[in-house]
Amino acid sequence: MKSLYPAIEPFKYFYLQTSSNHSVYVEQSGNPKGIPVIFLHGGPCSGTRPGHRQFFNPEKYHIILMDQRGCGQSLPFGEVENNSTQDLIDDMEGIRKQLGLEQWLLFSGSWGSTLALLYAQQHTTRVLGMIIRGVFLARQQDLDWFAKEGAGRFYPEKWHELVSSIPKSATTDLVKGLYDAVFGEDEVAQRRVAKAWIAWGGQVALMQDYQEKDDPVHVTEKMVLQVQMEMHYAVNKYFISDNQVLNDCDVLQQIPTVIIHGANDMVCPIEAGYSLHKALPSAEYIVLASAGHIASGKEMEDALVDATDRMIELV
Fold this sequence. Notes:
By secondary structure, the chain is an alpha/beta fold. It is built from ten helices and eight strands.
């Protein structure tokens, strides 16, 4: 069973300057002459972490981490103006061009998988291959599962707390109600919704491993900004048409692709992984019997590291 590669430090970082007020954080590690790979984090508004470099053999890969607009170390944090899916795709192209790369490998998870697939559909010739974990297709049914009728039936207590964080009159369209509250002028309501949404996401992602702290959670301004961005993307239906990702998969058939999905994923149910595999029948489809949504645990780490090792020979 394979494990993560040893921790490494970046050899360079920079900020991609965009045509708006956004500056996108980009870092490079590993071998600058190796196979270029870009890590696409989830969220939106999750950000990258040092451990994300460890999925790749540092002697073989030129590892590129980006914090998407308003995320992580990108500036300004939490800014939703000029922040759409197409903006993120354009940022990726800007990074590729600034680094002078002809092609690169896409490594993605959750929301990042949506972004990878959309980028590849627009810039097919620039993609060496794709490793896609925890498939999120950004359909209405995917959002409904998480924020309407679905996961709430498995975690009724946390679901009740989320629904109760906004006025009952606003719960008819929960996503819109949460959006209005977290962007509203009532600071107490903002923080109440942010706390409930973050707790809900933690419960669904971590499942039985989720534990609340004994001390009351202090909701920071940064937490509110993070939830604002998540709701900004959700209320705008991720700035794509429904089922766009699957509908446009024809152009991806020749790209070497590995799809990895946890059978117990409660954030992005396995149907999404299966549906993507049906749209990309030549892709390798790996179901992990004991894994959930997050990119940790021995089974998931083994599969992801093995995929990056094997992709060296495929690309």
